[in-house]
Amino acid sequence: MADNFDVLxxxxxxxMLALPFLLVRIIYSGLNAINLSxxxxxxxxxxxxxxxxxxxxxxxxxxxxxxxxxxLYAASxxxxxxxARRDSVPSEYPLPEVPDPELGRDRHFAR
Length: 111
Fold this sequence. Notes:
This protein is 59% helix and 0% strand.
């Protein structure tokens, strides 16, 4: 099984990679909440509104950032699971004994 410290480092790495995406998403949510200017224009905060704002900004700063975080967390979980399984598999598999018809065990493996 994977060492607990290794798992902790992998989880910490996933969180650190996801932080910039979360920061962009938090800034976008803050701009949604503030929405100081209601006049249309290129320099207004109205373009960050989820209802009347730009669809491209909504997809890039909202949806894509959430998808990136989910993919990072899911991939790190799968990676940790795979590494735990890889570490727990023995290096050499014991082979089953070959049935011996002379001893009367022609259909069963020895236990």
